[in-house]
Structure formats: structure tokens, C-alpha cells
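The pair is quoted verbatim below.
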Amino acid sequence: MSDAGATRPSRAGSNMPSRADATVARATRFLGGPWGRYAASGDSRWTPLRVVLALACITLVLAYIEKSPCADGQWTGNKQYTHVCYSDVIPLWSAERLDVGNVPYRDNAVEYPVLVGGFMWLSANLTNGLHSLLSDVSSVELFGMITCFLLAACALIAVAGTVGAAGRRPYDAVIFALSPLLVFHAFSNWDLLAMAFASCGLWAWARQKPVAAGVLIGLGVAAKLYPIFLLVPLILLAMRTGRHRELWWCVVSTVTSWIAVNIAAYGAYYAGWREFYAFSATRDA
């Protein structure tokens, strides 16, 4: 019986963090050192993507626990600051009059772009529909729970996009999946919606799909403004590599998808739609 396989270096572990990253390699010393050259990984279902998603789930559970002291909205004695659990989600349930069935932009101006407004409206409708079944939970708590659940889904999409964009170093995405910032701010606002689009946009660009990248970045801009700045490094990359055609398609797709998402609210509820841009132009840092 041949033992050739026993002396052949394993390729399966070539992207293991302990072999690809010197810092991780040093950290594994108490476990016996980095992944061995001849170590066999077997037919494991724990792919790098699944590992990183599982780590992100742990972080998101901690994030939910971190916000839980403020979930009931009873913020007496500056509880939201003394317990470090402030979130925009809880006060905006009533401030945006979602608790009485108002539709963002139509019934009142909203200080967020249209996709966040739509996200809030969806969460509010789910809250009102489930509240009759879960009457022992206050509506504001239920709204917070549903919002956190949907944002957690966005976070996992963002993680998957980051893993995809990382190429041959998928475990680099752990720096996002286990970030302390994700614990404290995953559910402070609706930023994870934009992050999901932006991360998948970079993944699409890495896979040489400029139109898809542009569409996703445009959707990200329709949720928060910052993804538009991703075009800056893409422009620099195009200048270095000569991928001007791909950049052009990406920019056109970004603008087109942003217009497609915004045009209905702009035409029907202009006063409510422009509030975000007017507010952003005048607010302090």
C-alpha cells in the first residue's frame, strides 16, 4: 500500500490563518503552533465562509445583549449613556411616528435616505402585525427586536461580501466579524444596510463584474451616503491598471441604481425626501 499521500504537503491548509498571517501564527503557540505542512484537513463542512459567519453570529449576539438594557425605551436618569446602550432605533419609533402608522416621506420628513426609510417602514409593519400575537411585549421593544434581527441579516451579508472580496485570504474578514465596534454599534443605527450593499459591491468588483458592483454601490448610497466614496479608490485602481471601461460601467450603474431607487419618493413626496439632504448639509460634525 503506497504511503505517497502521507509525504505530500497538504494544500487544503494553505489559506489557514496560522499559515498566512504571522500574528495569528504566534498566537497559536499555546495550541501547539501553526497548521502543519502535512496536516490533513479532511472533508470538513466548516468552510472559511461558514467559520467567519459563525464568529459574526457570536459578535451579533453580544451586540444585542449590549443594547438590551435600553430596549424598553424607559431612559430615565440618562440610562442610555450610563449603560452605554444608546440606539437611534428606539426613540425614532415614536419620533418618526411609526408607532401610529405614518409612512416615511409621505406623512413626515425623514432624516435618512430612502432605503433606510423603507427599512424602517418594513420593520414598523412587521411590528404592528406581530404585536397582536405578542401582546405581552411592548411595541417599541418588538420594533427594536425586529430591527436588530433584520440588521443582523445585513451584517452577515456584509461578512459574506467581505470574505468574497478577500479572495485567497478569506479569514481576513474576521477583523470585521469579531470587531468590538460591531458589538457596540451594530444596532445603534441602520448603517449595516449600507454596509451589506457596499461589501457585496466590492465583492462584485473583485470578481470583475463592474455593472453589478455599480448597482450595489448605488443601492448603498441610497441607504447611506458613504458608499459613494468607494468610487475614489476604484478610480485610482482604474488609473493604475487601465480598466477605464470597467470603471465607466461601474459609475454609470451606480448613478442609475441610485436614481431608480429615489425617483419615486422624489416625485411623489419631494418635501419629505429632501429632508435628509437639507439636514446633512447644515448639521454640525
